[in-house]
Write the structure tokens for this entry.
Amino acid sequence: MLSRRHIRIKIFQALYSYYKGSVSEIALGEKELMRSINKNYELFIHLLSILVELKSYEEKLIEERKKKQLPTKEDKNPNVKFINNKLLGQLSENAHLVSEIEKLNISWKDEQEFIKKVHTKITETESYKEYKASSESSYEEDAAIVIRLFKNQIADHEMLQHILEEKNIHWQDDHYFVCGYAVKALKQFNEKTASDLKLPALFKDKEDDIEFIETIYRQVLVNDGEYQEVIMKKAKNWEADRIANVDFILMKMALAELEKLPSIPVKVSLNEYIDISKNYSTPKSKLFINGVLDKIVADYQRDGKIKKRGRGLMN
């Protein structure tokens, strides 16, 4: 589930925290890094569970309206298309999701005001109204409305972000990524999906990804002085205090990746860290980082410090 881009950002955030003095030991920092990464799976389950809760909430509303003293014709014969939505049904009956919700003790019982507001927001959309009014009945239509509502009315809901931030301080930064993973997971369902379908695991290749995390985090901190010196030699006309701390961290991560992870192509490493700098550093950082790393790569390749495995990995 986790992309390497997201993993790199999590490592960067952990290193930034370490350099700021928030963590006193490398081992403790690494432990907190792994904890924050593992928490992404819990966030993923939280997000999917909202859809299950919304289905349940509408079912309760329908039953309550039927019991009114003076029920309307609509109350007596409600439109049940949403609660009969095939994708929502699959989520509610998915053994893996149900098990994870129970295991993680996830409940929206104390957040019914949020569920109510989301449900109201959903029912006021034209897409929901058109869906309920449509005579069509297909899996494709059911899946499309669930994904659309999740993306447009649930994922960016201000109240949701506040609730999640209270549950875990890391989730504010991870929310955007994990919402994307949730949408991908929803798209994996189809009309023939069985109730025992396994949801995506946190890591695509756990052993490989953990090695990636530990290698970059440890190598940056262990070789901090060496990497600092290498960078400053190529950062002509720049004093260390004029270079953003973020830029230093990203370049050190790139050096660790170039030197210590032989299976990742050079261009991939460079492009990733330059791209991350666009979101986390100054507008000029990408050009600065690109220029410095290009010079270092040339030296590393000349001195045999970059040893990549596989055809084409040197480029």
About this structure: Residues 16 and 99 are 36 Å apart (CA to CA). The chain has two domains: 22-187, 223-302. The chain has a mean pLDDT of 94. The two ends are 27 Å apart (CA to CA).
